[in-house]
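At this stage, I put together one protein's amino acid sequence and its backbone structure tokens, which the following lines show:
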Amino acid sequence: MAREVKKDRSEVCADFNETESHLSLTTMQTMLPQHRQTCLFLAALLAGLVFAECAHKPPPWSSRISPVEQFGPDVDLSLRLDSDSVDVPLLEWAIFLETNRQRARLGLKPLKFEPRLQYVAEQHSREMVRLGYFEHNSPVPSNATLTKRIRHVGIKEGIGGENIAIHPVTRRQDAIFRAAQAGPTASKYAWRNEGDDYTYAEFARDLVNRWLNSPPHRRNVLNKQFHYLGVGLAQARYKDIEVFYVTQDFSSANY
């Protein structure tokens, strides 16, 4: 008997659930036409609000103070670099000014500061540090090439170019870095060239000179077709040395 009672209860429950499901479905089918327009209206309104929020959100580079206004062309770059408290915007500006100084020395027009290129350069330097690579092409599909990166910020015309580098923060670390690259035969080189730490001007001069001594980098620095430049830095540890990943992004147009 107990088994039969259990069976009966199971059947009752099954019948009840089936009826309940049928009623619920019928109710939903009845209600849906009545509220469809309301639901669609609310969905469209929500989508519009999200779009408006995104559309009115200022781009990240627009809220920053331009180094042209913050520092100007005559800023004092004789301060010594302290690896624990580097003024990154000032160092980026020092590299920008040194690039133009080298161009002027060879009779070329100065490059204009472009905040969107600076943003792209900074993001690329930070991404290289974060993902542990050192290349012009990014493993992130949306940032794969320089062309894609500058198109994202609205520069869709003209041509572009890019220089990247890993440069130690201090002169002592730079000597160790070069010695490590040169191999064990140059191990004493590091300790013979400690000297003082870089000034902001010296760091920029050393870095740009290295680019000028490399033909493909030199072509970018001295390219007559380029009119705009942005420089971006990201500080990191590389082979136990405090370094900056540096990116220079050039463009012939800013639209």
Notes: The first strand starts at residue 112 and ends at 113. The domain at 67-251 is CATH 3.40.33.10 (Pathogenesis-related Protein p14a). The CA atoms of residues 96 and 118 lie 10 Å apart.
